[in-house]
Amino acid sequence: MDKEKKNKNKSLDDDVKVLKNANVFASDKFGKEILTHLKSKGVQSGKYIFLNNKTKEEKLNKCILESFINFYCFDFNLDSNIDIIKKLSKVITENNKILIAMALLPETKNKVKLEEFKNKIIELKKIFNTIIVIDLNHLKKTMRNLPKKELIEVTYNLIIITIKGLVEIVVTPQFVGIHYTYIDMIFKNGNITSISLSSSDSDNRVKELVEETFLNILLDCNLTKKTDCIIHISGSNDLSLEEIDNCGQNISKLLPETSNVVWGARNEENLRRKVIIFTIFTGVEFK
């Protein structure tokens, strides 16, 4: 084995060691549903922990010590859980780890209520490194007025895809890898964040995917000078390095010049000609 190959394997081994325990926390009914869905989908990397007021800091320290990324899933019934969240945030900060919130912006036609929800998310930036927001109002428009029960199921799946995707970017072998230090750099100060998911199997798939990446952002938001971006591309053996680079470069050109942008790619044989782009935009602002 040559030196370059040894270093590559060592890098992957280090990533797996750091990320072997990606924790997902919850302390309300919605969060508990997410934990249940994660287990049923067979997401292997990580621990799923339901918190309550009796949860000791010693227990949190034990599970956080070996982790790299920590997720907290919640809806907006936070009043009874804020002390738990602050306790979790304190322990994670002391251990110099990342705490990412997975938050729903509830469905409402009341503009005043919607602004209240947005302000509450902005206030929570003091607690979380990054808050990934899925806007149910925006999602409903995108899904063409899908019934509420099915909309919630789609939302659960999007949250699972996000958590699973972020963990697997680092812990699974990649065609083009993203080292966890880049994820750390981007998410330590991610603030308000949104995701985009696009796919194409056409002959012009790179151009389509770049366009759809911006059309499919799941939040009504503006990109800012503080926006950074993680792009992950999945495709089968016909996905070329040139296509991967073109996707990354062309998305980068449409972002502010100040943006840090990283991209990686993984081979998935079952995709055949289809290519999927999972994109995370940090540092966005509500419209």
Features of the shown structure:
287 residues; alpha/beta; 2 domains; 9-stranded mixed beta sheet; 60s Ribosomal Protein L30, Chain: A; 11 strands; single chain; Rossmann fold; 44% helix
Structural features, described:
By secondary structure, the protein is an alpha/beta fold. The chain folds into 2 domains: about 5-175, Rossmann fold; about 195-285, 2-Layer Sandwich (60s Ribosomal Protein L30, Chain: A), CATH 3.30.1330. The protein contains 10 helices and 11 strands. The chain has helices spanning about 5-20, 30-40, 55-65, 80-95, 110-125, 135-140, 150-170, 180-185, 205-215, 240-255; strands spanning about 25, 45-50, 70-75, 100-105, 130-135, 190-200, 220, 230-235, 260-265, 275-280, 285. The protein has a 9-stranded mixed beta sheet with strand order 2-1-3-4-5-6-10-8-9, with helices on both faces. Strands 7-11 form a two-stranded antiparallel ribbon. Strand 8 (about 230-235), helix 10 and strand 9 form a beta-alpha-beta unit. Helix 2 (about 30-40) crosses helix 7, helix 3 packs across helix 4 and helix 9 packs parallel to helix 10.
Which helices and strands, and how do they pair?
Blueprint lengths: L2 H17 L3 E4 L2 H12 L6 E4 L6 H9 L3 E6 L7 H13 L3 E8 L5 H13 L6 E6 H7 L5 H24 L8 H8 L3 E10 L4 H11 L5 E2 L5 E8 L5 H13 L7 E7 L7 E8 L2 E2 L1
Parallel strand pairs: 1-2, 1-3, 3-4, 4-5, 5-6, 8-9
Antiparallel strand pairs: 6-10, 7-11, 8-10
Helix pairs in contact: 2-7, 3-4, 9-10
